[in-house]
Amino acid sequence: MSGRQGQYSAQKPFNQCGPTDAWMLHIRDVLILRWKPLENTVWYEPLAEYTPARLRFWILHTLVPVILTQRRYCEFLHAGAIAYNGEAMIFTAASFGGKSTLTHYCLQQGFALVADDCVGLRTLGTKIEAVPGYPFCRPYRAAEELGTQVSDYAHSCLPVKAIYSLEKVAATATAQLLTLSGAARMQVLWENRFTAVSYLKAEQFKTTATLANELPVYRLLVPQSLDKLESVLDITLA
């Protein structure tokens, strides 16, 4: 977990836990976080390598998404997202896959941040919206850091324009956008879940299938060259 050993625990097995059961997240050598849903309260215990910045990181980056998933408020993707013309464009990729780099590039071009690294999706009737996260972007790989605070970020939920699954290609290649359908859409969303709660697996699978059926999902081939990011962005905006 972000370069640390972490462990969730509760008074009974997680597959028997419900939304009102308390649980604990222990980040070795850093801190212990205790979530008490009936009190709507987080308690923390500092350990040897605790810092206030690490407390903020573990609460915002890890604890809050798990809580919101448990409460069925939204599902989270390991992704970055920016706002464009009142909609959210979401970039998914494996770790070191370039999503934060592309998200940061979009911010440099004047777009607003929706979320970086962890993007919430919620369904309201027939609408699917992206939920804004904390206003930090991390275009570099540093463990236990939220990144750099941005001034231009989304303040409310936005409808989703599309989800783009990034795939690195040679620097000399051309950026391409490939439409995905059927099981390929489902695979992208399921493999890029940010929070996987064991006792909600069946429910999360059903929700993910709904998202895959309703949202446009593309494979975005991204040349490994910063000079090509302009062309990458151009084809997503077309």
Spans where pLDDT lies below 50 across 5 or more residues: none
The major sheet is characterized as:
9 strands, mixed
Structural class: alpha+beta
Write down the overall mean pLDDT: 91
Gap between N and C termini: 37 Å
- Could you say which overall geometry the principal axes of the C-alpha atoms support? globular
Given the structure, what is the number of helices?
Answer: 5
Number of strands: 15
Can you put this structure into words, describing what you see?
The chain starts with 5 loop residues before the first strand and ends with a helix. The strands form three sheets. Strands 5, 6, 7, 8, 9, 10, 13, 14 and 15 form a nine-stranded mixed beta sheet that branches. It has a four-stranded antiparallel beta sheet with strand order 1-2-3-4, with helices on one face. A two-stranded antiparallel ribbon has the order 11-12. The protein has five helices and 15 strands. Helix 3 (183-191) crosses helix 4. The protein is an alpha+beta fold and 238 residues long. 26% of the residues lie in helices and 33% in strands.
